[in-house]
């Protein structure tokens, strides 16, 4: 089982949050002496014991501990956080890059578990499960008409590697019910969505986060593109919230020359650690472009900063998020953990790109709204520049610190003023679910159609546009799509291709209308 980012683009926000939460360098610590150096900790222990024994009403003292830990961390920076056990497992799994399951993308449709698409070469595909199938039972447990939460479904379908689960399946397209035994296996969670040629000489790689497996995925894609004749590599870091510093450093090393500086970190005691490129890079010559936006953060900014400060490539897009703090993880012994900021990182020119965090509430993370209101998303001149924080790149170009990576080439937000919500909606799960439901009405018909035939079907038949307007209105979104009809139909067509064909064809179609990518290709 896998809920893929492409099929559930609304999960982009979750991925960004995970990246921001993780920071850019994670080291586990089991040094319990960190908690024993201050005798004042006994105050907390005595208070909690007193409440547990004497407080007039019954309560869960674990929740008090959680509140206490959160209260302490809130006095620090926005990225020093407490991770409860219920969240830590999912975050760890995402950043590890795999989990054990049955290998399907799904969502609950009319209170039934509907398979959007089985994972290629995964356990479910191997036993014949297809897109559109409904999973009615997992062993003897009924899954339909039960209002089971997505988290509960994950727990039911996951298990030990090699364990078997009996699924009872209904295939609507053939009007038949059957049972299959699925042997659970390791399911990769891709952090590199696609590596594909976007012109005769330009290769494109989309990285959605920096997990343990990211470098290996990236290197494989980069090697393939180089073999296909790529003379330019475009790395898409838009909406990438970060993750492991080591993965970003390893990728930067593929483009930088031996001993070029990649990143520096400095801790409370003033200790500075520097990371240099090695001789192993396979793309040290050739054009490099990195795409960023307001949700590009943490490890993504390390990679962008290293390329920019070494004058190795061009940064295109809008100012990045601005997270330059390094966290260390300490398990608390009960399955939960604390991630504490222990250092700052600096780009090769010496920039700290951490933005101010006096406002540590929601406004700190709500960059899109703030930048929209300031006009920064649409006009280059509205980008805040700290004139007092000037730095020089390797070749002497001026770059600025004080909050995020400022691109070399500015590209405004896709869509005009007033169309922001429509663009975000089209990039969310609304289109995915709508398309699945349209295909589900007559899967046999769509299975016989070519990509071009689907395009004609979608663009020349007003029924799809009208049905989509009704779909979002039913969901409570009051948006006027009439002046963005072609854009809407383009996203709908692309998602049809994605669900009926494969990711490569989906991306190639979607990227044709990508404003930022076209800016790069037409320079």
From TrEMBL:
<dbReference type="Pfam" id="PF03572">
    <property type="entry name" value="Peptidase_S41"/>
</dbReference>
<dbReference type="InterPro" id="IPR036034">
    <property type="entry name" value="PDZ_sf"/>
</dbReference>
<comment type="similarity">
    <text>Belongs to the peptidase S41A family.</text>
</comment>
<dbReference type="InterPro" id="IPR005151">
    <property type="entry name" value="Tail-specific_protease"/>
</dbReference>
<feature type="domain" description="Tail specific protease">
    <location>
        <begin position="175"/>
        <end position="356"/>
    </location>
</feature>
<keyword id="KW-0645">Protease</keyword>
<keyword id="KW-0378">Hydrolase</keyword>
<dbReference type="Pfam" id="PF13180">
    <property type="entry name" value="PDZ_2"/>
</dbReference>
<keyword id="KW-0720">Serine protease</keyword>
<protein>
    <submittedName>
        <fullName>S41 family peptidase</fullName>
    </submittedName>
</protein>
<dbReference type="InterPro" id="IPR029045">
    <property type="entry name" value="ClpP/crotonase-like_dom_sf"/>
</dbReference>
<dbReference type="InterPro" id="IPR001478">
    <property type="entry name" value="PDZ"/>
</dbReference>
<dbReference type="InterPro" id="IPR004447">
    <property type="entry name" value="Peptidase_S41A"/>
</dbReference>
């Amino acid at each position: 089982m896998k809920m893929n980012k492409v099929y559930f683009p609304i999960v982009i926000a979750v991925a960004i949050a995970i990246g921001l939460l993780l920071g850019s360098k994670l080291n586990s610590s089991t040094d319990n002496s960190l908690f024993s150096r201050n005798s004042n900790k006994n105050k907390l222990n005595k208070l909690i014991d007193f409440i547990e024994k004497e407080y007039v009403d019954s309560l869960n003292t674990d929740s008090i501990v959680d509140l206490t830990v959160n209260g302490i961390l809130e006095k620090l920076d926005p990225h020093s956080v407490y991770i409860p056990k219920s969240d830590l497992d999912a975050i760890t799994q995402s950043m590890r890059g795999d989990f054990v399951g049955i290998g399907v993308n799904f969502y609950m449709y009319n209170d039934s578990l509907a398979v959007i698409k089985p994972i290629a070469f995964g356990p479910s595909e191997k036993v014949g499960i297809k897109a559109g199938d409904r999973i009615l039972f997992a062993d003897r447990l009924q899954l339909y008409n039960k209002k089971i939460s997505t988290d509960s479904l994950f727990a039911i379908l996951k298990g030990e590697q090699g364990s078997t689960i009996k699924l009872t399946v209904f295939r609507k397209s053939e009007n038949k019910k059957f049972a299959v035994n699925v042997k659970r296996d390791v399911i990769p969670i891709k952090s590199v969505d696609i590596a594909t040629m976007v012109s005769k000489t330009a290769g494109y790689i989309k990285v959605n986060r920096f997990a343990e497996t990211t470098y290996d995925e990236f290197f494989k894609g980069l090697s393939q593109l180089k073999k296909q004749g790529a003379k330019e590599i475009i790395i898409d870091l838009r909406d990438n919230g970060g993750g492991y510093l080591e993965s970003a450093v390893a990728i930067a090393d593929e483009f930088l020359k031996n001993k070029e500086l990649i990143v520096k970190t400095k801790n409370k005691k003033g200790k500075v650690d520097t990371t240099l490129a090695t001789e192993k890079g396979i793309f040290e010559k050739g054009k490099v472009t990195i795409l960023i936006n307001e949700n590009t953060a943490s490890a993504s900014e390390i990679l962008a900063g290293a390329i920019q400060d070494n004058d190795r490539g061009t940064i295109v897009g809008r100012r990045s998020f601005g997270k330059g703090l390094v966290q260390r993880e300490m398990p608390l012994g009960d399955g939960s953990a604390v991630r504490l900021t222990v250092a700052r990182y600096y780009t090769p020119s010496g920039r700290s790109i951490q933005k101010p965090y006096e406002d540590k509430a929601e406004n700190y993370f709500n960059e899109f709204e703030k930048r929209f209101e300031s006009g920064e998303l649409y006009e280059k001149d509205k980008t805040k520049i700290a004139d007092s924080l000037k730095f020089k790149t390797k070749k002497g170009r001026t770059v600025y610190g004080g909050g995020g990576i400022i691109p070399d080439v500015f590209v405004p937000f896709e869509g005009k003023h007033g169309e922001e919500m429509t663009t975000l909606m089209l990039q969310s799960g609304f289109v995915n679910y709508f398309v699945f439901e349209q295909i589900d009405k007559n899967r046999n018909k769509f299975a016989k159609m070519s990509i071009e035939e689907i395009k004609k079907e979608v663009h020349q038949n007003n029924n799809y546009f009208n049905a989509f307007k009704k779909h979002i209105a039913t969901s409570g979104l009051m948006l006027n799509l009439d002046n963005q009809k072609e854009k809407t139909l383009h996203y709908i067509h692309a998602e049809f291709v994605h669900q009926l064909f494969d990711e490569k064809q989906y991306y190639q179609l979607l990227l044709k209308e990508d404003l930022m990518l076209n800016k790069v290709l037409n320079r």
